[in-house]
# Entry
Amino acid sequence: MSALGQRPMCQDTGIVNVFVEVGMDVTWEAELSLEDMINEGVRQAYTSSDNPLRASIVEDPLFARTNTKDNTPAVIHMKVVKGNTVDFIVAAKGCGSENKAKFSVLQPDDNVSDWVLKTIPTMGAGWCPPGIIGIGVGGTAEKAMLMAKQSLMDPINITEVAQKTNPTKVEQLRLDLMDKINDLGIGAQGLGGLTTVLDVKIQDYPTHAASQPVAMIPNCAATRHLHFSMDGSGVAELPEVDMSIYPDLEMDYSQYKQVDLNSLTREQMGDWNIGDTLLLTGTIITGRDAAHSRLKQMLDNGEGLPKGVDFNNKFIYYVGPVDAVGDEVIGPAGPTTATRMDKFTDMMLENTNILGMIGKAERGQSTIQSIKKHKASYLIAVGGAAYLISKSIKSAKKIAFEEMGMEAIYELEVKDMPVTVAVDSEGHNIHSIFQNVQVISD
# Structure
């Protein structure tokens, strides 16, 4: 659907990561620096009227956190090499996966595999598995992190590696880690299953004899990066999507329960069990991190809710959609990681009479207890399937905080929006695999 519609599969096209190798023989005819040229490219791409992407970057990160409105600046890594071309890798990295990055300095004789297998469960499901794990070992702290990120740009080739008769030690470690990570049973979206990772990448570098820096960064299911080269002869050639590789699929909704949100009661929600698949029809109100923070401030100050915002007997959807183009009602509108909203959930349940929440990934224990106390529910939409979900949204209007961009509050009218019950009104939790793990929210 995304390839045919030329719209992002997931709305979080995030921070632009750019790796550039500049040939030593390259000469430039430009008034801008290479960094400025790259950022101008990002600006034009993200604000294209034909296919605008979500502006996710905020400047003054310590204080004002003001959206730059064009997704600049990119995070750029440059390297000067032999040759007369400029080679690029450009990645649009969402923060559901980026925020799960891990780093540690192990003892020289510590086992990296043990650290990885201990750390993976603490990442929860917010990184939208199944995906890829990138690992950097050695160098210094920043070198290990850079290697972990850059390894994610390599082709998925674990199948070819597995067929080798004499794999290297690093390749054997990749195979071993992939098997052991998948044996953890985390599965797609953290719902359990055989496949948590599709590949494990490892880069290493010489390091100090007294040190073993290790970094690990996951890439989500929507792993997006583009490789191209420029030689001065004109516009770079980019790969075209080969639609023949996609199978013909049809959604099977036969096991889904139809739910009318506009007449739903807490008593009816009491019949839901974790794992139930639902098709939601009716009115949903949205709200993300900054909106929750502002709502809290207003409630604390006795101002009440913003004019026109009514959460009573409704679900709140944790989403920051892409702006609509053409005849779209709304752009890709997939769930963000619900764990970040845990600190606001009790406030919302106590003060707004919401029936429940829609997001992705697991909730903390205190949040689950609050959901049980208020006989609410937590539903999950498939992380990364933002373009699919947007097709179930039939109308959308901003009703508060419009100046906050993607953090604005929308009122959505949905028809047959597919979700799964993750925490029911009795506090049963589908992500129980993480119940005894301290989850660091993204």
Remarks:
- Residues 435-442 have pLDDT under 50 and may be disordered.
